[in-house]
Each structure stands twice: as C-alpha cells, then as structure tokens.
User: What shape does this take?
Amino acid sequence: MLCKRTYKNQITLPKKVMEQFEDYEYFDVKVSKGKIILEPVKMTPKNEILLEKVRDKIAALGLTSLDIEDAVAWARKE
Assistant: This one.
C-alpha cells in the first residue's frame, strides 16, 4: 500500500491498516535504518498512573483497608 506525503508533511494511512488499531489515537514515531516505524501508544492520564502505583505498593506491603483507615486517623489527630 502506498501513502503520499502532503505539502504540509502529513501522510494518511490506509483505512485497512488503521482498522487494526481502532483503539489507538496516538503513535510513537521512530526512524530506523531509513524506515519510519509507528508504534501504537495507550495514553493514560498521569493521575491514574500515580494511583495505580500507590495501589500496587499498598498490595505489595500487604496493607488492608483497615490499616489505611487507622493510618489516616492517626495522621489527622491533633
């Protein structure tokens, strides 16, 4: 399949190619050995990534919901 570069340096990828990547809006672009390589990227808001890391850390430490509630209560004491 061919793609043509426009005067604004844009290319349109064929519909048959993009149908395989319907869940992706962003692509990482690299140049390697004279070839353009596009890799699909799932974008996640930064806050979601941070929250996921916190949850993973809590799970790794074996903390329970009660442990968290106790820690919050202790931290809020005057």
Notes: The radius of gyration is 23 Å. The CA atoms of residues 15 and 45 lie 28 Å apart. The chain has a mean pLDDT of 90.
